[in-house]
């Protein structure tokens, strides 16, 4: 007797329309079973899918159905909830279930043959057992106790709105502890936005839980791990040995058969949204998964996303999340930093640092405190120009300038990577005076070295060494941390006190616990106030709050920590709210604007991006699909009314129109109802597929739908 099995395999991006494949098997295998199946002339990994959830298995010719090649023995089937999660993700983000499900599994499951797999499974170490000193948890602060009591007694989801240093992580640890102690099988998932935040979190969780449940009870899952490491963590979570999984956004898909608690730390962080393949939001999926599996969900942030903030308004007003507030910092470091605005209109033109800021930096360094200077632009200068003829260091392949990197005297395109040595003279007119325009972190570093040349490291001037040591400046950005281990090394130097002034991009603003920093300066934050991206102010506010959260954590220094903002708009509402550390005021003002303009969270959005050899082809493709929706589709049975709600904007070039010689265009779609937008997109997919072959779209390379896009 043989059985027909629906099986998901990794199919190209838009095979959503293609059916789940059908294979034959001797044994009836439960949905969720991992199998190897022949596909063309190769063998590939597949997941047996539930015939009922795999919408239509489509037509198939029984004579052509092939046998599965084998079952991945020793690995229990993926749970029904996992299958539902992946099915939902594929449908919601408009991708194929095969692509989404297979991408969510560790790559080595695909690569290892059955013998290798069997060996890998055997090698699973036996529990080393608990033992060792249990690290005592601190007594809870009243705010923590109140938050935890709410989490215990309500179902959530919860938005834990707590200042940096208010003890949010301690709340997570406490909830995980309670859960694991009460239920010997229960598992918890804790997510952080960045890979480089996982080691410090892992350390904290291991210190707390390894003595109770053994080392293997805490595992990590992120893309910085090797494939064997990832497989090991995944198997351990899937088998239930791992009680706590710590990870980045990909961890939302970890197989956790006894998942009871999900924590999304820094839930506002854009890194939770994937930028390729299925453009899923791990934060949103966490909430969905929690509901699906009956797991409690805690979203934590000092500056929540406006979406989550809105969802956590009072229930009477329609809120769906429960907001928990922890406004105070723990312990003596409870004083929040003082925010100072420097009006750059009253400073010398083109000054990088204002006079009072320079004085403040010198004073802090002289006292042995650390300073963090923050500018969200790497390189020396964003563009080189010739004042004689107007030449600019454009990238020949992109509609963008190449950035001047003085360290290796190169011009580098940050979009396509095209790199050349800086020309000796203007390539157009021969003028030898080509000059950098604007500034980046490299220039800041150089300039600070000049400004601080006479300042000596705190305590380094002694009778034996009357000259003392120069102030040490370090730069942390994507350029200085390219090699593996560099970031860790640089962070360690900051922690060890070997650095007096730290210069960097947003990389340094996030999450890291720099205890001795007492002054944080944002050199030029104004750009985001005038950005065409409606989310730019939200991101700037959270970045500056985060940066401010870095300051003054070490109470023993006793100095009042400060955040300096150099701005031409000192009266701007965003800075005023920041000065008062008043996120609710900022959020209220932003949400009001969004409501008036009908923007998320007051409407749902999707974006279709198209790439083509010409801008005309990219736009023609999008506009043709739009016209079809507005005319033909509107005439389809039952669609007229729905389509009245769906607003399709005309196609426009993307902000950076050309990258690596590929033209890019996008089309925004807005709808007051998420459900209607979903319905529309699902139906419209086939239109997009069909439009592709129209003559005016010749030269179209690819297109993709981004549901709930973050960058527009
Ligand atoms: P957050 O995650 O909100 O930034 P943390 O949980 O990291 O805050 O707490 C900040 C600091 O305060 C940490 O050093 C932590 O160990 C300490 N801390 C947290 N809760 C308590 C408490 N109840 N008693 C004493 N120290 C605490
Ligand atoms: Zn010139
Ligand atoms: Zn380029």
Any overview of this molecule?
There is one protein chain. The two termini are 55 Å apart. The relative contact order is 0.09. With 712 residues, the protein is α/β, with parallel strands linked by helices. Strands 9-10-8-11-12-7-13 form a seven-stranded parallel beta sheet, with helices on both faces. The protein contains 19 helices and 29 strands. The mean pLDDT is 89.
Percent of residues in helices comes to 25-40%
Radius of gyration: 28 Å
Low-confidence stretches: none
How many strand segments?
A: 29
Strand content range:
15-25%
Envelope shape: globular
Mean pLDDT: 89
Count of helical segments?
A: 19
| Lateral strand order in the biggest sheet | 9-10-8-11-12-7-13
The description of the largest β-sheet is: 7 strands, parallel
Oligomer: single chain
Give the class from helix and strand content and strand pairing: alpha/beta
Q: Provide the list of bound ligands, each named once.
A: adenosine-5'-diphosphate, zinc ion
What's the short version?
The protein is an alpha/beta fold and 712 residues long. α9 links the parallel β11 and β12.
Outline the secondary-structure elements.
Layout: E1 3-8, E2 21-25, E3 34-39, E4 42-48, E5 66-67, E6 70-71, H1 80-92, H2 97-103, H3 107-111, H4 114-122, H5 142-153, E7 158-162, H6 168-182, E8 187-191, H7 198-213, E9 218-221, H8 227-239, E10 244-247, E11 259-265, H9 282-293, E12 296-301, H10 306-311, E13 322-326, E14 338-343, H11 355-366, E15 370-374, E16 383-386, E17 403-405, E18 410-412, E19 419-421, E20 434-437, H12 441-451, E21 473-476, H13 486-495, E22 501-504, E23 517-522, H14 536-550, E24 562-567, H15 573-579, H16 583-596, E25 604-612, H17 615-635, H18 640-645, E26 647-648, E27 652-659, E28 662-671, H19 674-691, E29 700-707
Helix pairs in contact: 1-2, 1-9, 5-6, 17-19
The protein binds adenosine-5'-diphosphate and zinc ion (2 copies).
């Amino acid at each position: 007797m043989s059985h027909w099995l629906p099986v998901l395999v990794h199919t190209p991006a838009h095979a959503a329309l293609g059916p789940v494949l059908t294979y034959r098997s001797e044994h009836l295998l439960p949905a969720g079973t991992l199998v190897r199946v022949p596909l063309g002339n190769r063998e590939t990994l597949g997941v047996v899918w539930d015939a009922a959830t795999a919408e239509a298995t489509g037509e198939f010719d029984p004579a052509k159905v092939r046998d599965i090649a084998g079952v991945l023995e020793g690995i229990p089937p993926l749970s029904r909830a996992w299958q539902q999660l992946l099915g939902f993700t594929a449908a919601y983000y408009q991708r194929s279930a095969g692509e989404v499900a297979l991408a969510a599994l560790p790559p080595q499951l695909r690569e290892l043959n059955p013998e290798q797999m069997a060996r890998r499974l055997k090698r699973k170490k036996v529990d080393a057992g608990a033992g060792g000193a249990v690290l005592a948890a601190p007594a809870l602060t009243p705010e923590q106790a109140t938050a935890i009591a709410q989490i215990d007694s309500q179902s959530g989801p919860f938005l834990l709105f707590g200042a940096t240093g208010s003890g949010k992580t301690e709340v997570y640890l406490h909830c995980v502890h309670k859960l694991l102690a009460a239920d010997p099988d229960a598992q918890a998932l804790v997510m952080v936005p960045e890979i480089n935040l996982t080691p410090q979190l892992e350390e904290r969780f291991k210190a707390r839980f390894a003595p109770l449940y053994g080392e293997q009870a805490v595992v990590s899952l992120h893309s910085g791990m090797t494939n064997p490491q990832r497989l090991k963590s995944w198997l351990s979570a899937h088998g239930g040995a791992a009680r706590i999984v710590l990870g980045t956004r990909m961890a939302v898909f970890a197989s956790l058969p006894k998942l009871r608690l999900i924590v999304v730390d820094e839930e506002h962080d854009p890194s939770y949204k994937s930028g390729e393949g299925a453009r899923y939001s791990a934060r949103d999926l966490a909430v969905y998964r929690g509901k699906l599996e009956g797991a409690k969900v805690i979203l934590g942030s000092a500056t929540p996303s406006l979406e989550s903030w809105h969802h956590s308004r009072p229930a009477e007003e329609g809120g769906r999340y429960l907001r928990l507030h922890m406004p105070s910092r723990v312990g003596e470091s409870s004083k929040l930093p003082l925010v100072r605005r420097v009006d750059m209109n009253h400073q010398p033109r083109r000054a990088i640092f204002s006079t009072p800021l320079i004085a403040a930096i010198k004073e802090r360094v002289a006292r042995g405190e650390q300073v963090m200077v923050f500018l969200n632009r790497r390189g020396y200068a964003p563009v080189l120009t010739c004042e004689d003829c107007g030449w600019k260091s454009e990238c020949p392949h992109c509609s963008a300038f190449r950035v001047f990197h003085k360290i290796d005297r190169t011009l580098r395109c940050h979009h396509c990577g095209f790199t050349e040595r800086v020309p000796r003279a203007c390539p157009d007119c021969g003028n030898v005076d080509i000059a950098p325009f604007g500034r980046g972190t490299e220039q800041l570093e150089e300039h600070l070295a000049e400004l601080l040349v006479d300042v000596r490291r705190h305590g380094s001037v002694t009778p034996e060494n009357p000259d003392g040591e120069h102030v040490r400046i370090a730069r942390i950005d994507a350029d200085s941390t390219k090699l593996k281990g560099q970031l860790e090394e640089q962070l360690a130097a900051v922690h060890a006190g070997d650095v007096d002034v730290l210069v960097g991009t947003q990389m340094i603003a996030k999450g890291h616990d720099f205890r001795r920093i007492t002054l944080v300066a944002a050199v030029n934050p104004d750009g985001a106030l005038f950005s065409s991206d409606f989310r730019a102010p939200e991101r700037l506010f959270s970045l500056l709050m985060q940066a401010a959260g870095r300051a003054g954590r070490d109470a023993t220094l006793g100095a009042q920590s400060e955040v300096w903002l150099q701005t031409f708009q000192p009266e701007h509402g965003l800075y005023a709210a920041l000065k008062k550390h008043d996120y609710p005021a900022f959020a209220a003002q932003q949400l009001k604007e969004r409501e008036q303009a009908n923007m998320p969270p007051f409407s749902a959005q999707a974006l279709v991006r198209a790439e083509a050899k010409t801008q005309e082809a990219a736009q023609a493709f999008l506009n043709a699909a739009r016209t079809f929706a507005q005319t033909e589709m509107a005439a389809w049975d039952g669609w007229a009314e729905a389509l009245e709600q769906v607003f399709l904007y005309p196609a426009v070039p993307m902000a950076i129109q050309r990258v690596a010689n590929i033209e890019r265009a996008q089309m925004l779609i807005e709808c007051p109802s998420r459900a209607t937008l979903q319905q529309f997109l699902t139906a419209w997919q086939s239109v997009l597929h069909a439009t592709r072959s129209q003559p005016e779209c010749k030269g179209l390379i690819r297109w993709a739908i981004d549901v709930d896009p973050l960058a527009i």
